[in-house]
Design brief:
single chain; alpha/beta; 5 strands; P-loop_NTPase; DNA_Rep/Repair_Clamp_Loader; DNA polymerase III subunit delta
Length: about 325
């Protein structure tokens, strides 16, 4: 696992709660994608299920249940089983929550405690969220829930009200630079610095930028946000740079990059343009929240992103409805 120095405050709060007389049964781990929340959830879950005098397995733990995106279909499931990259379903389904709840009717396998990690919790179907709420309202004895979320506002208010919030801060640029240098010793400094500038404090976003070779996408987005696109030429170029069939991970990275591009443009913007940037940024935030749920055509989604960026530059074309 990555060493995350910005987790110090989270660990203090978590361990203080563990020392208390009554550990809260539900936790929301909130912060940008790429801040190590999943790493924290796994390590915290192991601390919680460990009991003195009871040997713990070093590999997969039977009392730590992880719910995340399943493979898209049988073909993708086969790829996963072979250790190959695979596409996943858009949402965490209600069937996964119900299967987990069925497990909770039995006692933990090793000790007296069990942890359920849902990551990312903001990608649960509405019916899955409603089903989970029942477990949060009446949690089985010794069962704890860790909900990893990049957008806590996307969770049901009733879920948020039953959980304790643990926030994860963004990483300083210098820390991201040190980490990237250690992971990629041959990385060009200019490429590294470009990734950091657009990462918005997220090590995961910087890694994605480099792994997916998003430099060309970033440059086109910057031009759209500053020049507009009256002839739609930049929009066409952006679609080519993103690719005809981007997978879910690439599309999410592109959405994150669009938001970061607009946020970075705020620093030296005039008051009039600042309003346009804020409006466009808010629209992109809403679009990113909808994307996992609605089956958007990738081409139309890229066109919407480009239109919002161009609008922030003062372009005359309205964004697609």
């Amino acid at each position: 696992m990555t060493d995350w120095p910005t987790h110090e405050a989270a660990w203090r709060e978590w361990r203080e709660a563990m020392r208390g007389s009554r550990m809260h049964h539900g936790w929301i781990l909130a912060g940008k994608a790429g801040l190590g929340k999943h790493d924290f959830a796994l390590a915290a879950a192991r601390e919680l299920v460990a009991e003195e005098g009871i040997p713990q397995p070093s590999g997969t733990h039977p009392d730590i249940l992880i719910l995340t995106h399943l493979p898209k279909d049988d073909k993708e499931e086969k790829k996963r089983d072979e250790g190959k990259p695979f596409e996943v379903k858009r949402n965490i389904a209600v069937a996964q929550i119900r299967a987990m709840q069925q497990r909770l009717t039995t006692r933990p396998t090793i000790g007296s405690r069990r942890v359920v990690i849902i990551d990312p919790a903001d990608d649960m179907e509405r019916s899955a969220s409603n089903a989970l709420l029942k477990s949060l309202e009446e949690p089985p004895v010794g069962t704890f829930f860790l909900l990893v979320t990049h957008r806590p506002a996307g969770l049901l208010p009733t879920i948020r009200s039953r959980c304790r919030m643990l926030r994860f801060p963004e990483l300083p640029d210098a820390q991201i630079a040190r980490q990237l240098d250690a992971e990629m010793p041959g990385l060009a400094m200019a490429e590294r610095d470009a990734a950091i500038a657009l990462a918005g404090g997220s090590l995961g976003a910087a890694r994605s930028f480099l792994k997916m070779e998003l430099g060309g996408v970033a440059r086109l987005m910057q031009r759209l946000a500053h020049e507009g696109d009256p002839g739609f030429a930049l929009q066409a170029s952006l679609a080519d740079a993103v690719g005809a069939r981007p997978d879910r991970e690439r599309m999410r990275a592109v959405l994150d990059l669009g938001r970061t591009t607009l946020a970075a443009s705020l620093h030296d913007a005039s008051p009039e343009r600042r309003l346009a940037l804020i409006d466009a940024h808010q629209a992109l935030v809403e679009l990113a929240a909808q994307a996992p749920t609605y089956n958007f055509d990738p081409g139309l989604l890229v066109g919407e992103i480009a239109s919002l960026l161009a609008r922030a530059a003062g372009a005359s074309e309205p964004a697609h409805g």
